[in-house]
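_Backbone structure tokens_
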Amino acid sequence: MKAVQFTALGLPKEVLKVVELPMPEPAAGEVRIKVTKANIIPADIMFIQGMYGIRPELPQIAGFEATGIVDAPGEGVDMPAGMGVIFTGTGVWAEYVCVSSQAVIPKPPAMSDEIACQAFVNPFTAYGMLMEADLQAGDWVMLTAANSAFSKFVIQLASQRGINVVGTVRSDEQKQALLDLGAKAIINEKTENIYKAVKTATDGVMVKAAFDAVGGELGDKVLNAMQTNGKMFVYGLLSLQPIPLNSGLLIFKNLTIKGFWLSTWMTSLTKAERYSIIPQVLGMLASQDLKADIEATYSIDEIHKAIEHMEGPGRSGKILLDMSK
């Protein structure tokens, strides 16, 4: 079978190779999946470079999120062959993957593979962070990298709940689509004063919570735009620079900064909470009450073109891998 593998850490264009590997066999409690489509997310790129929260075990197949069809259940697994599934794992950019049955979710029949392959990481992270932020109708939340797939899910979920969203982008051309999606204000971080723009947008109230994917100087500017007792949730570091924390600001505004990682949050939920949240999110995606944008799809052999497109400027939707091509 074909797989996208790396044997050393580094930039994807330098270390990723499409290789032929033996078909994996499912162990007890696992299921073998014939992958149909896979998502490319920033965490994949960080993982390949050795900059993610978990380390690769070289040689390593890349990719965290995909959808496919059950090909062979392992011992003790009650999942029939041919069943459509959504799943996450370490190394899903391959034609066949074996993963724990606990990491597999049945795919709603009405959901396309294009949506299913991106139905876990970003939608559930958006849902979880809004849940942790404990925002009410009328509150303000601020998003950095507001044009990302994650932020678009936050905008839609927040808008449905009457929560106001202000976000930052790097181009004026990105503003209108996000306003149309439900954001109340979008700020060009390159050309506008963030504090003044937030003060104007919120009529002086400022933001109660912030979801930061960038860090660095932008993260510092966002902290300055927060209310007293505000909370910042850090879920990425696209700038590769830490936030330069102002101790006085933290003290006098009583600010809280905490990290968010989907895996940790999911394990913190009770079984009842998981059984409630998972159908809610998947149902919204299947009914398109939550919309997911797709810009382009590439074959596994075109992995370098796919990642180049994914990392390029001006992108407005997800880049996917089609494992059936």
